Amino acid sequence: MLVIIDYGVGNVRSVTNAFRYIGSDITVSCDPAVIARADGLILPGVGASGYAMQKVAPIADCLKEQAAAGKPLLGICVGFQLLFKESHEMGTHQCLGLIKGKVVPIPTDLGLTIPHMGWNYVKFADNMRLFDGLGDGRHFAFANSFYAQMDDAETKAAMTEYGVQITAAVEKGNIYGCQFHPEKSAADGLQVLKNFVKICDEEQSGC
Amino acid sequence: MLTKRIIPCLDVKDNRVVKGINFLNLRDAGDPVELGKKYSDEGADELVFLDITATIRSKKTIVELVEKVAANVFIPFTVGGGISKADEIGLLLRSGADKCSINTAAVNNPDLLRESAERFGAQCVVLAIDARRTPGKVGKWHVTVKAGSEPTDIDAIEWAIKAEKLGAGEILLTSMDADGTQTGYDIELTRAVAEAVSIPVIASGGAGTLESLTEVLDKGKADAVLAASIFHYGTYSIKKTKEFLQQHGVPVRPV
Q1: B5-247 falls under which CATH superfamily?
Q2: What is the pLDDT of residues A58-68, one digit of tens each?
Q3: In what order do the strands lie in the sheet with A84-87?
Protein backbone atom coordinates (compact mmCIF):
# COMPACT_ATOMS: atom_id res chain seq x y z
CA MET A 1 0.00 0.00 0.00
CA LEU A 2 1.25 3.48 -0.92
CA VAL A 3 0.25 6.58 1.02
CA ILE A 4 -0.31 9.99 -0.57
CA ILE A 5 0.36 12.47 2.20
CA ASP A 6 -2.49 14.93 2.49
CA TYR A 7 -1.23 17.86 4.54
CA GLY A 8 -3.74 20.39 3.21
CA VAL A 9 -1.71 21.82 0.34
CA GLY A 10 -2.56 20.94 -3.12
CA ASN A 11 -3.36 18.59 -5.79
CA VAL A 12 -4.03 15.41 -3.85
CA ARG A 13 -6.96 14.55 -6.10
CA SER A 14 -4.96 14.67 -9.35
CA VAL A 15 -2.20 12.53 -7.87
CA THR A 16 -4.74 10.06 -6.46
CA ASN A 17 -6.55 9.85 -9.83
CA ALA A 18 -3.31 8.98 -11.59
CA PHE A 19 -2.24 6.26 -9.13
CA ARG A 20 -5.74 4.75 -9.20
CA TYR A 21 -5.69 4.80 -13.01
CA ILE A 22 -2.47 2.77 -13.11
CA GLY A 23 -4.05 0.31 -10.69
CA SER A 24 -2.05 0.86 -7.51
CA ASP A 25 -3.24 0.40 -3.96
CA ILE A 26 -3.42 3.97 -2.67
CA THR A 27 -4.44 5.53 0.64
CA VAL A 28 -4.66 9.26 1.28
CA SER A 29 -3.65 10.15 4.81
CA CYS A 30 -1.69 12.39 7.13
CA ASP A 31 -1.73 9.97 10.07
CA PRO A 32 1.77 8.90 11.24
CA ALA A 33 0.47 5.39 12.05
CA VAL A 34 -0.77 4.94 8.47
CA ILE A 35 2.41 6.51 7.07
CA ALA A 36 4.47 4.02 9.12
CA ARG A 37 2.63 1.06 7.55
CA ALA A 38 3.06 2.27 3.94
CA ASP A 39 5.36 0.57 1.44
CA GLY A 40 6.05 3.95 -0.13
CA LEU A 41 5.16 7.60 0.39
CA ILE A 42 4.13 10.35 -2.02
CA LEU A 43 4.47 13.96 -0.94
CA PRO A 44 2.51 16.18 -3.38
CA GLY A 45 1.97 19.94 -3.12
CA VAL A 46 1.34 23.12 -5.03
CA GLY A 47 1.60 26.79 -4.11
CA ALA A 48 4.32 28.39 -1.99
CA SER A 49 6.94 26.14 -0.37
CA GLY A 50 7.18 28.20 2.84
CA TYR A 51 3.47 27.76 3.47
CA ALA A 52 3.69 24.08 2.49
CA MET A 53 6.57 23.53 4.96
CA GLN A 54 4.48 25.09 7.74
CA LYS A 55 1.67 22.68 6.96
CA VAL A 56 3.97 19.66 6.76
CA ALA A 57 5.81 20.59 9.99
CA PRO A 58 3.67 18.41 12.32
CA ILE A 59 4.71 15.28 10.41
CA ALA A 60 8.20 16.41 9.35
CA ASP A 61 9.96 14.20 11.93
CA CYS A 62 7.83 11.22 10.95
CA LEU A 63 8.76 11.72 7.27
CA LYS A 64 12.46 12.06 8.08
CA GLU A 65 12.36 8.87 10.20
CA GLN A 66 10.61 6.95 7.43
CA ALA A 67 13.11 8.25 4.87
CA ALA A 68 16.06 7.32 7.11
CA ALA A 69 14.59 3.83 7.53
CA GLY A 70 14.81 3.37 3.76
CA LYS A 71 11.16 3.73 2.78
CA PRO A 72 10.76 5.04 -0.81
CA LEU A 73 9.56 8.65 -0.84
CA LEU A 74 8.48 10.57 -3.95
CA GLY A 75 8.12 14.36 -3.72
CA ILE A 76 6.13 16.08 -6.48
CA CYS A 77 6.38 19.80 -7.41
CA VAL A 78 6.31 21.69 -4.09
CA GLY A 79 6.62 18.31 -2.35
CA PHE A 80 9.85 17.89 -4.35
CA GLN A 81 11.07 21.33 -3.29
CA LEU A 82 10.48 20.40 0.37
CA LEU A 83 13.04 17.58 0.05
CA PHE A 84 15.83 20.17 -0.12
CA LYS A 85 17.57 21.87 2.75
CA GLU A 86 16.04 25.30 2.40
CA SER A 87 13.74 27.44 0.30
CA HIS A 88 14.03 31.12 -0.47
CA GLU A 89 10.41 31.65 -1.49
CA MET A 90 8.97 34.59 0.46
CA GLY A 91 11.73 34.56 3.10
CA THR A 92 14.04 31.70 4.00
CA HIS A 93 12.47 28.47 5.22
CA GLN A 94 14.17 25.32 6.46
CA CYS A 95 12.78 22.31 4.63
CA LEU A 96 13.21 18.55 5.14
CA GLY A 97 16.93 18.56 4.27
CA LEU A 98 16.94 15.12 2.65
CA ILE A 99 18.85 16.48 -0.34
CA LYS A 100 21.53 19.16 -0.21
CA GLY A 101 20.64 22.29 -2.09
CA LYS A 102 18.25 25.22 -2.05
CA VAL A 103 15.11 26.44 -3.79
CA VAL A 104 15.46 29.86 -5.43
CA PRO A 105 13.44 32.02 -7.86
CA ILE A 106 13.79 31.53 -11.61
CA PRO A 107 15.49 34.78 -12.72
CA THR A 108 12.91 37.31 -13.95
CA ASP A 109 15.35 39.31 -16.10
CA LEU A 110 15.80 36.72 -18.87
CA GLY A 111 12.75 37.77 -20.88
CA LEU A 112 10.98 34.49 -20.11
CA THR A 113 7.41 34.18 -18.92
CA ILE A 114 7.07 33.26 -15.26
CA PRO A 115 5.70 30.84 -14.06
CA HIS A 116 7.63 28.26 -16.08
CA MET A 117 4.35 26.82 -17.35
CA GLY A 118 3.98 23.97 -19.78
CA TRP A 119 5.86 21.02 -21.25
CA ASN A 120 9.62 21.14 -21.21
CA TYR A 121 12.19 18.59 -22.34
CA VAL A 122 13.84 16.74 -19.49
CA LYS A 123 17.22 15.10 -20.02
CA PHE A 124 17.75 12.12 -17.71
CA ALA A 125 20.97 11.14 -15.95
CA ASP A 126 22.13 7.57 -16.61
CA ASN A 127 20.28 4.74 -14.91
CA MET A 128 17.60 6.72 -13.09
CA ARG A 129 15.00 4.23 -11.89
CA LEU A 130 12.15 6.74 -12.20
CA PHE A 131 12.68 6.95 -15.97
CA ASP A 132 13.09 3.26 -16.67
CA GLY A 133 11.82 2.51 -20.19
CA LEU A 134 11.71 6.15 -21.32
CA GLY A 135 15.04 6.52 -23.13
CA ASP A 136 17.32 9.54 -22.62
CA GLY A 137 14.71 12.20 -22.12
CA ARG A 138 11.05 13.20 -22.55
CA HIS A 139 8.71 16.18 -22.19
CA PHE A 140 6.94 16.69 -18.86
CA ALA A 141 4.44 19.27 -17.57
CA PHE A 142 5.84 22.00 -15.31
CA ALA A 143 4.21 24.84 -13.35
CA ASN A 144 6.84 26.54 -11.20
CA SER A 145 8.30 29.98 -10.49
CA PHE A 146 11.00 28.62 -8.16
CA TYR A 147 13.53 25.89 -8.80
CA ALA A 148 15.96 23.71 -6.90
CA GLN A 149 19.70 24.25 -7.18
CA MET A 150 21.05 20.86 -6.21
CA ASP A 151 24.38 20.64 -4.43
CA ASP A 152 24.59 16.96 -3.60
CA ALA A 153 27.23 14.70 -5.13
CA GLU A 154 25.32 11.57 -4.07
CA THR A 155 22.18 12.56 -5.98
CA LYS A 156 21.39 11.74 -9.61
CA ALA A 157 19.50 14.52 -11.32
CA ALA A 158 17.47 14.96 -14.50
CA MET A 159 17.64 18.50 -15.85
CA THR A 160 15.57 20.89 -17.92
CA GLU A 161 16.53 24.23 -19.39
CA TYR A 162 14.59 27.46 -18.88
CA GLY A 163 17.10 30.29 -19.08
CA VAL A 164 18.86 28.45 -16.24
CA GLN A 165 19.41 24.75 -15.64
CA ILE A 166 16.47 23.55 -13.57
CA THR A 167 16.63 20.37 -11.51
CA ALA A 168 13.69 18.44 -12.95
CA ALA A 169 13.99 15.20 -10.96
CA VAL A 170 16.27 13.60 -8.37
CA GLU A 171 17.15 10.18 -6.99
CA LYS A 172 19.24 9.57 -3.90
CA GLY A 173 18.90 6.13 -2.42
CA ASN A 174 15.25 5.80 -1.46
CA ILE A 175 14.52 9.51 -1.98
CA TYR A 176 12.89 10.47 -5.29
CA GLY A 177 11.43 13.73 -6.52
CA CYS A 178 10.05 15.50 -9.59
CA GLN A 179 9.71 19.23 -10.07
CA PHE A 180 7.28 18.48 -12.91
CA HIS A 181 3.88 16.89 -12.44
CA PRO A 182 4.09 13.20 -13.48
CA GLU A 183 0.38 12.83 -12.72
CA LYS A 184 -0.27 15.48 -15.39
CA SER A 185 2.35 14.44 -17.95
CA ALA A 186 0.25 12.01 -19.99
CA ALA A 187 1.58 8.51 -20.74
CA ASP A 188 5.23 9.32 -19.94
CA GLY A 189 4.24 10.77 -16.57
CA LEU A 190 2.14 7.71 -15.76
CA GLN A 191 5.19 5.59 -16.61
CA VAL A 192 7.20 7.52 -13.99
CA LEU A 193 4.51 6.72 -11.40
CA LYS A 194 4.47 3.06 -12.46
CA ASN A 195 8.25 2.99 -12.04
CA PHE A 196 7.90 4.40 -8.53
CA VAL A 197 5.30 1.76 -7.67
CA LYS A 198 7.69 -0.90 -8.97
CA ILE A 199 10.50 0.51 -6.81
CA CYS A 200 8.23 0.32 -3.74
CA ASP A 201 7.21 -3.27 -4.58
CA GLU A 202 10.84 -4.33 -4.98
CA GLU A 203 11.93 -2.69 -1.73
CA GLN A 204 9.08 -4.36 0.10
CA SER A 205 9.93 -7.80 -1.22
CA GLY A 206 13.60 -7.21 -0.42
CA CYS A 207 14.88 -7.31 -4.00
CA MET B 1 13.05 24.12 -24.61
CA LEU B 2 9.61 25.00 -23.29
CA THR B 3 7.08 24.01 -25.95
CA LYS B 4 3.98 25.88 -27.12
CA ARG B 5 0.77 24.35 -25.79
CA ILE B 6 -2.25 23.16 -27.75
CA ILE B 7 -5.35 23.34 -25.59
CA PRO B 8 -8.79 22.03 -26.58
CA CYS B 9 -11.63 23.79 -24.80
CA LEU B 10 -14.83 22.16 -23.61
CA ASP B 11 -17.64 24.73 -23.37
CA VAL B 12 -20.15 22.88 -21.22
CA LYS B 13 -23.89 23.41 -20.92
CA ASP B 14 -26.37 20.93 -19.38
CA ASN B 15 -23.63 18.26 -19.12
CA ARG B 16 -22.86 18.48 -22.87
CA VAL B 17 -20.04 20.13 -24.79
CA VAL B 18 -21.44 22.85 -27.04
CA LYS B 19 -19.95 25.43 -29.37
CA GLY B 20 -21.43 28.63 -30.75
CA ILE B 21 -20.41 31.61 -32.80
CA ASN B 22 -19.59 34.76 -30.83
CA PHE B 23 -20.98 32.85 -27.81
CA LEU B 24 -24.42 32.44 -29.50
CA ASN B 25 -26.19 29.79 -31.65
CA LEU B 26 -24.95 26.82 -29.63
CA ARG B 27 -24.59 23.42 -31.25
CA ASP B 28 -23.91 20.05 -29.59
CA ALA B 29 -20.32 18.78 -29.80
CA GLY B 30 -20.28 15.72 -27.57
CA ASP B 31 -19.87 14.27 -24.10
CA PRO B 32 -17.34 16.10 -21.88
CA VAL B 33 -16.00 12.94 -20.19
CA GLU B 34 -15.41 11.18 -23.52
CA LEU B 35 -13.95 14.25 -25.21
CA GLY B 36 -11.68 15.02 -22.24
CA LYS B 37 -10.27 11.50 -22.25
CA LYS B 38 -9.85 11.54 -26.02
CA TYR B 39 -7.86 14.81 -25.99
CA SER B 40 -5.72 13.70 -23.04
CA ASP B 41 -4.91 10.40 -24.80
CA GLU B 42 -4.31 12.00 -28.21
CA GLY B 43 -1.58 14.36 -27.06
CA ALA B 44 -3.28 17.64 -26.15
CA ASP B 45 -1.08 19.62 -23.75
CA GLU B 46 -3.84 20.85 -21.46
CA LEU B 47 -7.61 20.80 -21.25
CA VAL B 48 -9.94 23.68 -20.41
CA PHE B 49 -13.51 23.13 -19.16
CA LEU B 50 -15.78 26.17 -19.12
CA ASP B 51 -19.21 25.98 -17.59
CA ILE B 52 -20.85 28.48 -19.91
CA THR B 53 -24.03 28.60 -17.84
CA ALA B 54 -21.87 29.80 -14.92
CA THR B 55 -23.57 27.59 -12.37
CA ILE B 56 -20.60 26.46 -10.28
CA ARG B 57 -21.89 28.37 -7.30
CA SER B 58 -25.30 26.84 -7.19
CA LYS B 59 -25.05 23.41 -8.76
CA LYS B 60 -23.35 20.37 -7.41
CA THR B 61 -23.72 18.72 -10.82
CA ILE B 62 -20.86 20.74 -12.32
CA VAL B 63 -18.51 19.65 -9.54
CA GLU B 64 -19.55 16.04 -10.11
CA LEU B 65 -18.95 16.42 -13.83
CA VAL B 66 -15.51 17.98 -13.20
CA GLU B 67 -14.68 14.94 -11.03
CA LYS B 68 -15.69 12.56 -13.81
CA VAL B 69 -13.73 14.41 -16.49
CA ALA B 70 -10.65 14.73 -14.23
CA ALA B 71 -10.59 11.00 -13.48
CA ASN B 72 -9.54 10.33 -17.10
CA VAL B 73 -7.47 13.43 -17.85
CA PHE B 74 -3.71 13.19 -17.23
CA ILE B 75 -2.73 16.60 -18.55
CA PRO B 76 -3.17 19.94 -16.75
CA PHE B 77 -6.89 20.66 -16.37
CA THR B 78 -8.36 24.16 -16.00
CA VAL B 79 -11.95 24.75 -14.91
CA GLY B 80 -13.86 28.01 -15.15
CA GLY B 81 -17.27 29.59 -15.47
CA GLY B 82 -19.05 31.52 -12.75
CA ILE B 83 -16.32 31.24 -10.10
CA SER B 84 -16.84 34.10 -7.64
CA LYS B 85 -15.12 33.04 -4.40
CA ALA B 86 -11.77 31.57 -3.40
CA ASP B 87 -13.61 28.77 -1.59
CA GLU B 88 -15.06 27.65 -4.92
CA ILE B 89 -11.53 27.36 -6.30
CA GLY B 90 -10.63 25.20 -3.31
CA LEU B 91 -13.63 22.96 -4.04
CA LEU B 92 -12.75 22.61 -7.74
CA LEU B 93 -9.09 21.87 -6.99
CA ARG B 94 -10.22 19.15 -4.58
CA SER B 95 -12.46 17.81 -7.35
CA GLY B 96 -9.52 17.31 -9.71
CA ALA B 97 -8.98 20.69 -11.39
CA ASP B 98 -5.36 21.90 -11.52
CA LYS B 99 -6.13 25.53 -12.31
CA CYS B 100 -9.21 27.73 -12.19
CA SER B 101 -10.09 30.56 -14.52
CA ILE B 102 -11.82 33.64 -13.16
CA ASN B 103 -13.51 36.22 -15.35
CA THR B 104 -16.49 38.40 -14.33
CA ALA B 105 -15.90 38.03 -10.58
CA ALA B 106 -12.33 39.33 -10.91
CA VAL B 107 -13.60 42.40 -12.77
CA ASN B 108 -16.13 43.03 -10.00
CA ASN B 109 -13.63 42.22 -7.23
CA PRO B 110 -9.97 42.29 -8.39
CA ASP B 111 -8.86 41.34 -4.88
CA LEU B 112 -10.20 37.83 -5.58
CA LEU B 113 -7.08 37.28 -7.73
CA ARG B 114 -4.78 38.23 -4.85
CA GLU B 115 -6.66 36.12 -2.30
CA SER B 116 -6.75 33.08 -4.62
CA ALA B 117 -3.04 33.34 -5.49
CA GLU B 118 -2.12 33.60 -1.81
CA ARG B 119 -4.22 30.59 -0.87
CA PHE B 120 -3.57 28.25 -3.79
CA GLY B 121 -0.52 29.65 -5.58
CA ALA B 122 -0.37 31.88 -8.67
CA GLN B 123 0.18 28.80 -10.86
CA CYS B 124 -3.47 27.82 -10.51
CA VAL B 125 -5.03 31.26 -10.94
CA VAL B 126 -5.94 31.97 -14.56
CA LEU B 127 -7.50 35.31 -15.42
CA ALA B 128 -9.90 34.95 -18.34
CA ILE B 129 -10.36 38.13 -20.35
CA ASP B 130 -13.11 38.37 -22.96
CA ALA B 131 -11.98 41.36 -25.03
CA ARG B 132 -13.71 43.19 -27.82
CA ARG B 133 -12.31 45.80 -30.20
CA THR B 134 -13.47 49.25 -29.14
CA PRO B 135 -15.38 50.79 -32.05
CA GLY B 136 -13.71 53.82 -33.55
CA LYS B 137 -10.41 53.30 -31.73
CA VAL B 138 -7.50 51.53 -33.40
CA GLY B 139 -5.43 49.22 -31.17
CA LYS B 140 -7.90 49.46 -28.27
CA TRP B 141 -9.89 46.63 -26.73
CA HIS B 142 -12.30 46.71 -23.83
CA VAL B 143 -13.17 43.97 -21.38
CA THR B 144 -16.61 42.37 -21.57
CA VAL B 145 -18.21 40.35 -18.77
CA LYS B 146 -20.99 37.81 -18.25
CA ALA B 147 -19.90 35.62 -21.15
CA GLY B 148 -19.32 38.62 -23.37
CA SER B 149 -22.85 39.97 -22.99
CA GLU B 150 -21.92 43.14 -21.10
CA PRO B 151 -19.24 45.63 -22.16
CA THR B 152 -17.23 47.50 -19.52
CA ASP B 153 -15.07 50.61 -19.90
CA ILE B 154 -11.98 48.69 -18.72
CA ASP B 155 -9.05 48.60 -21.13
CA ALA B 156 -8.04 44.99 -21.78
CA ILE B 157 -4.27 45.63 -21.77
CA GLU B 158 -4.38 47.64 -18.55
CA TRP B 159 -6.52 44.95 -16.92
CA ALA B 160 -3.99 42.26 -17.87
CA ILE B 161 -1.14 44.27 -16.32
CA LYS B 162 -3.14 44.86 -13.14
CA ALA B 163 -4.11 41.18 -12.89
CA GLU B 164 -0.49 40.08 -13.11
CA LYS B 165 0.40 42.42 -10.24
CA LEU B 166 -2.47 41.02 -8.17
CA GLY B 167 -1.22 37.47 -8.59
CA ALA B 168 -2.74 35.90 -11.70
CA GLY B 169 -0.39 33.21 -13.02
CA GLU B 170 -1.70 33.09 -16.56
CA ILE B 171 -4.09 34.91 -18.90
CA LEU B 172 -6.69 33.20 -21.05
CA LEU B 173 -7.37 35.87 -23.64
CA THR B 174 -10.46 35.47 -25.83
CA SER B 175 -11.22 37.76 -28.72
CA MET B 176 -14.99 38.16 -28.66
CA ASP B 177 -14.87 39.49 -32.20
CA ALA B 178 -13.25 36.30 -33.48
CA ASP B 179 -14.72 33.61 -31.21
CA GLY B 180 -16.33 30.73 -33.11
CA THR B 181 -15.84 32.41 -36.50
CA GLN B 182 -12.85 30.23 -37.49
CA THR B 183 -11.40 33.25 -39.28
CA GLY B 184 -8.18 33.44 -37.28
CA TYR B 185 -7.11 34.76 -33.89
CA ASP B 186 -6.84 38.47 -33.14
CA ILE B 187 -3.06 38.66 -33.57
CA GLU B 188 -2.80 42.32 -32.68
CA LEU B 189 -4.71 41.90 -29.40
CA THR B 190 -2.74 38.80 -28.40
CA ARG B 191 0.60 40.41 -29.10
CA ALA B 192 -0.33 43.61 -27.26
CA VAL B 193 -1.24 41.63 -24.12
CA ALA B 194 1.72 39.21 -24.38
CA GLU B 195 4.14 42.13 -24.62
CA ALA B 196 2.53 43.94 -21.69
CA VAL B 197 2.81 41.10 -19.15
CA SER B 198 5.42 38.51 -18.20
CA ILE B 199 2.97 35.70 -17.33
CA PRO B 200 1.93 33.21 -20.05
CA VAL B 201 -0.87 34.20 -22.43
CA ILE B 202 -3.25 31.64 -23.96
CA ALA B 203 -4.76 32.91 -27.21
CA SER B 204 -8.41 32.04 -27.75
CA GLY B 205 -11.15 32.78 -30.23
CA GLY B 206 -11.06 32.36 -33.99
CA ALA B 207 -8.98 29.21 -34.52
CA GLY B 208 -9.62 28.13 -38.09
CA THR B 209 -6.77 27.04 -40.30
CA LEU B 210 -3.54 25.61 -38.93
CA GLU B 211 -1.81 28.69 -40.32
CA SER B 212 -3.89 30.77 -37.90
CA LEU B 213 -2.46 28.78 -34.96
CA THR B 214 1.09 29.23 -36.23
CA GLU B 215 0.52 32.93 -36.70
CA VAL B 216 -0.76 33.64 -33.18
CA LEU B 217 2.04 31.57 -31.58
CA ASP B 218 4.66 33.31 -33.69
CA LYS B 219 3.57 36.87 -34.53
CA GLY B 220 1.04 37.02 -31.70
CA LYS B 221 3.67 35.89 -29.15
CA ALA B 222 1.17 33.60 -27.42
CA ASP B 223 2.49 30.81 -25.19
CA ALA B 224 -0.45 28.56 -25.93
CA VAL B 225 -3.48 28.31 -28.21
CA LEU B 226 -6.96 27.35 -27.22
CA ALA B 227 -9.33 25.94 -29.80
CA ALA B 228 -12.70 24.21 -29.78
CA SER B 229 -14.55 23.87 -33.09
CA ILE B 230 -11.58 22.65 -35.16
CA PHE B 231 -10.96 19.78 -32.74
CA HIS B 232 -14.56 18.90 -31.76
CA TYR B 233 -15.78 18.67 -35.34
CA GLY B 234 -12.68 16.78 -36.48
CA THR B 235 -11.31 19.40 -38.87
CA TYR B 236 -7.85 18.66 -37.48
CA SER B 237 -6.55 16.10 -35.01
CA ILE B 238 -4.15 17.09 -32.24
CA LYS B 239 -1.48 15.01 -33.96
CA LYS B 240 -1.93 16.72 -37.33
CA THR B 241 -1.96 20.13 -35.66
CA LYS B 242 1.31 19.46 -33.87
CA GLU B 243 2.97 18.05 -36.97
CA PHE B 244 2.02 21.17 -38.90
CA LEU B 245 3.31 23.49 -36.17
CA GLN B 246 6.56 21.58 -35.91
CA GLN B 247 7.08 21.77 -39.69
CA HIS B 248 6.62 25.53 -39.42
CA GLY B 249 9.23 25.99 -36.72
CA VAL B 250 6.97 26.14 -33.66
CA PRO B 251 8.35 24.01 -30.80
CA VAL B 252 5.72 21.49 -29.63
CA ARG B 253 5.69 18.33 -27.55
CA PRO B 254 5.69 15.48 -30.06
CA VAL B 255 2.66 13.18 -29.95
Answers
A1: Aldolase class I (3.20.20.70)
A2: 999 999 999 99
A3: A93-94, A84-87, A99-105, A146-150
